[in-house]
Design goal:
It is a single chain. By secondary structure, this protein is α/β, with parallel strands linked by helices. It contains 13 helices and 13 strands. The longest helix is centred in the last third of the chain and has 19 residues. The radius of gyration is 21 Å and the shape is globular. The structure holds pyridoxal-5'-phosphate. The site of pyridoxal-5'-phosphate has 14 residues, from α4.
Length: 389
């Protein structure tokens, strides 16, 4: 088979590409295209597409990678969160603590269970759930679970948070959808809390070629409960012993592809981190706030700067052909779709972050020349060179 992107490109094409828009994200599967094609053929030839050998093998591989005893594949990251909440006994009327700056994914899952979100403010530096604010929240309410999002690929202050929640007898759910492979003290995201929830949406650090998700845990009872919840609540075929079940399965094709990509994850994370490091050094003298960690606890899913004139900076970059996005513009407690007992002003750090954050291109395969263009476009904004990049 012939892959056009493997062919040599002539200098004119390269020149053209240099002036093309740099996207916020570009799928970078060239290095493993052959492996992905082989994995697809393997599944087609097996004639087994749902809950077979590939899903079982991926669950084994991913559990080992994360350093946990169990992994249960599900259909996507939102289902992972919802089913995890259900497996931990969260029901209508319960309270769940979580941050409000993480794109409403956790909130969607909480709302689907009928529970009520109680938003806790985030840490000024990492923009992840603040242990101090969590202590304060525990004095106000009595949650059934706490969701901690490792936002942008930055591990939260997870050991302290787990310790605070465990003291209160409350289970913790790590939302690792942006943090595959992030680690601290030799432990990886998804191994600190009671459960870890992952999305394999194509743009994630470990992305499928479609939707996918997983829950990791060391608790065999929680894992057994999840296995039932992902398949109609069956204890065995056609025997429904567990309420709250549904169809939420990772399919064989995605599992086979993810197995191939898992071996490349650490390399890709390293590449993301190197780009982040280069940006951090280049932006050190500019009046923007950059990610504070470029160590193992940050896998640079998104490289996010903060600046008071975010919208002006964004349109300048747009004019320079640099793709950007805002993760996320509206805090969960101010989303119009749901009434919240919390209102504007209740979460000052969260609300300020939503006004100031801007994500820049940072992904494996982002060329050296593209990185330079991002840097000089940002510099030109602060040097007042409007129209120049
Ligand atoms: C932090 C976070 N949690 C959960 C999700 C939901 O994952 P999915 O889109 O697979 O449902 C996403 C991403 O999309 C995410 O970024």
């Amino acid at each position: 088979m012939d892959f056009p992107s493997f062919r040599r490109q002539n200098p004119q094409q390269v020149l053209l590409r240099n002036h093309q828009k740099i996207p916020l994200f570009r799928i970078h599967d060239d290095a493993c295209k052959r492996a992905l094609v082989d994995a697809t053929m393997r599944v087609i030839e097996s004639r087994w597409y749902i809950l077979g050998a590939e899903v079982a093998a991926f669950e084994r591989d991913f559990a080992a990678y994360c350093g946990v005893a169990h992994c249960v594949g599900v259909a996507n990251g939102t289902d992972a969160l919802e089913l995890a909440l259900r497996a931990l006994g969260v029901k209508r009327g319960h309270t769940v603590f979580l941050a409000a700056n993480a794109g409403f994914y956790g909130s969607t899952a909480v709302r689907l269970t009928g529970a009520v979100p109680y938003y806790v403010d985030v840490d000024e530096e990492t923009l992840t759930l603040s242990p101090r604010s969590l202590e304060h929240a525990f004095r106000q309410d009595n949650p059934k679970a706490v969701i901690i999002t490792h936002l942008y690929g930055q591990l939260a202050d997870i050991q302290d948070i787990v310790e605070i929640a465990t003291r209160k007898g409350v289970p913790t759910i790590e939302d690792c959808a942006q943090a595959h492979g992030a680690s601290r003290g030799g432990r990886r995201a998804g191994s600190f809390g009671t459960v870890g929830c992952f999305s394999f949406y194509p743009t994630k650090n470990l992305g499928a070629l479609g939707d996918g998700g997983a829950v990791t845990t060391n608790d065999p009872a929680v894992a057994a409960h999840l296995l039932q919840l992902r398949q109609y609540g069956w204890s065995m075929k056609y025997r429904v012993d567990t309420p709250g079940g549904r169809n939420s399965r990772l399919d064989e094709m995605q599992a086979a592809l993810l197995r191939e990509k898992l071996g490349m994850l650490d390399g890709w994370n390293g590449e993301r981190r190197r780009i982040g490091n280069r940006y951090n050094q280049a932006f050190a003298r500019l009046p923007v706030r950059c990610p504070i960690s470029l160590g193992e606890d940050f896998v640079a899913h998104l490289y996010v700067v903060r600046h008071a004139e975010r919208d002006a900076l964004r349109s300048h970059l747009e004019g320079c052909g640099i793709g950007t996005d805002i993760h996320y513009p509206v805090p969960d407690h101010l989303q119009k779709g749901y009434a919240s007992h919390q209102s504007e002003g209740d979460l000052p750090i969260t609300e300020d972050a939503c006004r100031t954050v801007l994500s820049l291109p940072c992904f494996p395969g982002l060329a050296d020349t593209e990185q330079k263009r991002v840097i000089s476009a940002l510099e030109s904004f602060f040097e007042g060179r409007s129209g120049a990049c």
